[in-house]
């Protein structure tokens, strides 16, 4: 787009759309982790549950 000398507002709009798409993908990944990994660990042994909770604490820094 820059090579085509498109307007700055067009570039900003496209970058904004990319940011929103990445944020949505990140949210989906984290929700999937919660739904599958934590739910599975909760049904398992306490050591596995503690490990899963550690992973959860680690992943929440990306929220």
List the helices and strands and how they pair.
Elements: H1 8-42, H2 46-59
Give an overview in words.
- There is one protein chain.
- The protein has 63 residues and is mainly α.
- Helix content is 78%, strand content 0%.
- It contains 2 helices and no strands.
- Helix 1 (8-42) packs antiparallel against helix 2.
- The radius of gyration is 19 Å and the shape is rod-shaped.
Could you estimate the helical fraction of the residues in percent? over 70%
Q: How is the main sheet built?
A: none
Count of helical segments? 2
Order of helix and strand elements from N to C terminus: HH
Number of separate strands = 0
Low-confidence stretches: none
Strand content: under 5%
Arithmetic mean of pLDDT? 84
Summary tags:
63 residues, mainly alpha, 2 helices, 0% strand
Short account of what is shown:
By secondary structure, the protein is mostly helical. It has helices spanning 8-42, 46-59. The chain is built from two helices and no strands.
